[in-house]
Write a structure and sequence with these properties.
CATH class: Alpha Beta
Shape: globular
Largest sheet: 7 strands, parallel
Strand order of the largest sheet: 3-2-1-4-5-7-12
CATH topology: Rossmann fold
Radius of gyration: 18 Å
Oligomer: single chain
Order of helices and strands: EHEEHEHHEEHEEHEEEHEEHEEHH
Number of domains: 1
Helix content: 25-40%
Strand content: 15-25%
CATH architecture: 3-Layer(aba) Sandwich
Length: about 290
């Protein structure tokens, strides 16, 4: 199996690359600004806004599977059109696609828990772009796997972990919301699950999030305790009533997906209380 990791220099992409290299493989991976830090990967520049580049990279690598872990945030040209462009080029070449999506495709209105059968109803430009991309992937590539996930945490390198440190040491102003609820997942668990799905013929929608539903403030306090910071130094606030868009309480129900996987998705209360990280022996190790 030859795998191309799109967005390989990002937070999740780097972990996907690391797992493959640790298992003795040499994956192909893409970058936009600069290559990732793993010498064991073959790096290819990719701008998803360029209609020619996805085809050129796919032809150069000739992968059997693409894992699209790219993140263009709310940039429609990257997140929506780029994801669609990559899916179309993959479909034309008979390449399997594993597309990473987000809980931002849901509004949290009228319900808090979303299983794999729920249809997108995004409130933000980012959520709308992700919803457009995942819908196109499923239509263009019937054998594709769409994997929605939530806040990705791990090894003190995620954006939320950096924010907690900056708030605790006073180098950044702001607050962590007590009414903004998600189901965090560890980056190593997420990467292992994605490799497991990529190595199978599983198709459809999968939810890859942890079982613990936590507010951003609760999550911040857990991170602070793990890292020896004073949780009392973390400012708290309510997001309700602000002009910030997006759903408040959005919980991905991953139980159906979990029953299909050997990889166990830990809850944040567990992985933030454990010493060290869980490193699998291979791309899909558990």
């Amino acid at each position: 199996m030859t795998v191309l990791i799109v967005g390989g220099s990002g937070f999740l992409g780097s972990e996907l690359v690391r797992r493959a290299v640790s298992a003795g493989h040499r994956p192909a991976a893409t970058f936009h600004s600069r290559p990732g830090g793993h010498d064991g990967a073959a790096w290819h520049h990719l701008d998803l806004r360029d209609p020619r580049r996805p085809k050129a990279v796919l032809d150069a690598v000739a992968p059997t599977t693409v894992i699209d872990a790219s993140s263009g945030q709310a940039d429609w040209a990257v997140t929506a059109e780029g994801g669609i462009r990559l899916a179309r080029a993959s479909a034309e070449r008979g390449i399997r696609v594993v597309h990473v999506s987000s809980d931002a495709v849901f509004s949290g209105r009228g319900r808090a828990r979303y299983d794999e059968s729920c249809l997108p109803d995004p409130l933000t430009p980012y959520g709308a772009a992700k919803a457009a991309a995942e819908t196109a992937v499923r239509l263009l590539c019937p054998g594709a796997a769409v994997a929605r996930t939530s806040l990705i945490i791990g090894n003190r390198r995620s954006a939320h972990e950096r924010l907690v440190h900056e708030l605790a040491d006073g180098t950044r102003r702001g607050a962590l919301f007590t009414d903004d609820v998600r189901c965090p997942v560890h980056v190593e668990d997420l990467a292992a699950a994605l490799w497991e799905i990529a190595g199978s013929d599983a198709a459809g929608v999968f939810h890859l999030a942890g079982p613990d539903a936590l507010s951003r403030h609760e999550l911040g306090r857990l991170i602070a305790r793990r890292d020896g910071l004073d949780p009392a130094r973390l400012p708290s606030a309510l997001r309700a009533g602000t002009d910030l868009p997006g759903g408040l309480d959005v919980r991905l129900d991953s139980r159906a997906t979990q029953r299909k996987l050997a990889t166990r998705l830990r809850g944040a209360r567990q992985f933030l209380s454990e010493n060290g990280s869980r490193n699998g022996s291979g791309p899909g190790g558990t």
